[in-house]
Structures are given as C-alpha cells and as structure tokens.
Amino acid sequence: MDLTHLEALKQRLDNTPPNALRDDLWAHLCCEQAYLAIKAGNYGVGAVLVNEEDELVCVARNQVFLQDAAELSEPRSGYQSQRHAEMELLDRLETEFAHLDRRELTLYVSLEPCLMCSGRILLSGIGRVRYLTADKAGGFISHLHGLPPAWKNLASGVEVEEALIQGYWRNFAHDCVEQSAAQMREKVVQAWKGESEKG
Ligand SMILES: [Zn+2]
Q1: Which of 13, 18, 52, 187 could form a disulfide with 104 if both were Cys (CB 3.0 to 4.6 A apart)?
Q2: Distance from residue 184's CA to the centre of ligand 1 (Å)
C-alpha cells in the first residue's frame, strides 16, 4: 500500500466517531490492528478476543509476511500462509490464556474468516464470532451449511454474526483489505515461487 493510503487510514483512526453501537469499541481495536498489519506490509486484518464480561483478553493481526516479526532468531521463509489474524489470536488463546472457557469468548475480526480460519475457529471451541465486514469473494464462515457431520456438529456450537457497528468501522475494515489486495496477491504468488520479495 502506498503512503498516501496508509496516511489516510491513520487519519481516519485519529478521528473516529464516538462509540454508539454494541460492538463499536471492539471494532475500533480490530481496525487499529488491521492498520498495524498494513503498516508492516501484511494483509490489513485485525482481531480481538473478548470475555463474557465484555473485557479484552488479547489482540492479534495478520502477519503472513515477516516484516512484523523481525525478532525471529531462526531464519524462515518470508511468507507463512497460516499467520492470519484469527490464527494468531487463537495461538495466543491456547498458549497464554489456556485456562479460559472457550464457550464464553467472543472473537471479533475485521474481515469475515476464510476457509482455514473458519476450520480453526470450529476446532478451538470459541463460542461466538462477530466480523466487521463480509468477504463476498473469500469469506467462509457465513457458508457453514453443507459441512460433513463432525464439522456440522462443531459449527452448531458457534454463534456467527456480523458485528453491530457503525458504518464508519465497516467501511474502514473493508478499505484495509481492499486497498492492498492486488499488491498482497502479488507478494503471495512471488512467495509460492520461492522468491524473496527483494528486487
Ligand atoms: Zn483466515
């Protein structure tokens, strides 16, 4: 994403409307994470985990490209296909917050979860998912009908809905992905070929 777009997103984050709807607060945090992901050269998707008292548990963001993980000690490929925001969030849940009852948790994410993340969410035991903006092209979690029986059974335990938020946040979440989509696809194809993104 070019700097103008990034700066525009920053300005929008600095001039947010007051919270008015149920999920606005969490939408704000998701969008902050999405912004940080973009800033680090990743897909603009952010996620937050909230407990039954409506308190923050943890946050995460897309990190498929490793600019955001410069602290890594061992050399790895520059692309890690699994590091979507939801996957990072569930990694944190299962390592740092393993004592929490999953059924009481709500996962907020700026973009409707993909096929991979929908599967992981079902396996994680999370009770509720609320996404800021639907993903008509790649979203999977609104298409859980027609799954094989064991998955259908898992899906019956999860409540999935669009977040109750102002249009401001829905647009922001949408723009975070939309504006960088083409560029990100290029980076992924390059990684598939085994090329680094240098040059
Ligand atoms: Zn995903």
Answers
A1: 52
A2: 14
Task: Give start and end residues of each alpha helix (H) in 46-162.
Answer: 85-96, 115-124, 149-155
* Residues in CB range of 55: below 8 A, 6 or more apart: none
How far is the centre of ligand 1, averaged over its atoms, from the C-alpha of 175 (Å)? 17
The pLDDT value given to residue 6: 92
Sign of the C-alpha dihedral computed for residues 89, 95, 97 and 101 taken in this order: positive
Mean pLDDT, range 9-21, rounded to an integer:
96
Centroid of ligand 1 to alpha carbon of 72 (angstroms): 22
HSE at residue 163, side-chain half, CA atoms within 13 A, is 35
**d(CA 50, ligand 1 centre) in Å:** 19
Chain segment 33-63, per-residue pLDDT in tens: 999 999 999 999 999 999 999 999 999 999 9
Span 81-96, pLDDT tens digits: 999 999 999 999 999 9
Residue whose token pair is 């849940």: 93
Over residues 178-185, the mean pLDDT reads 86
Residue 119 alpha carbon to ligand 1 centre in Å:
9
